[in-house]
Specification:
Order of helices and strands: HHHHHH
Shape: globular
Strand content: under 5%
Number of strands: 0
Helix content: over 70%
Radius of gyration: 12 Å
Distance between the termini: 16 Å
Largest sheet: none
Length: 102
């Protein structure tokens, strides 16, 4: 399951237009399997621009891969402040909440 999630996430990231070019460093780390470095790169971008929901989304997804469920919940909630109607973010938050409760 973890491999499938990683493959799905990597496919979405490498699709191009789904994420801004400023996330290139995070995407490179992710593609190379350096999940903590990818998460930290995305988090640094999100700290500079709180309205950049895509960076927070990436922090949430990678945090889930790393088993950092509480951090994932926080990232999704921050992203939802910028895009409260995003089905993707709401679904991610739901997955993180379920994982955090286990």
């Amino acid at each position: 399951m973890r491999t499938l999630t990683f493959v799905s996430l990597l496919t979405a990231l490498l699709a191009g237009s789904a994420f801004a070019g400023s996330l290139d460093v995070a995407k490179k780390h992710l593609a190379e399997g350096r999940f903590p470095a990818a998460r930290d790169a995305a988090a640094a971008i999100a700290e500079r621009d709180a309205a950049f929901a895509r960076a927070q989304y990436l922090v949430g997804e990678i945090s889930l891969l790393l088993g950092e469920n509480t951090r994932a919940v926080e990232a999704y909630r921050k992203a939802l402040q910028a895009k409260p109607d995003s089905a993707t973010l709401l679904t991610g938050l739901g997955r993180a909440l379920v994982a955090d409760d286990e």
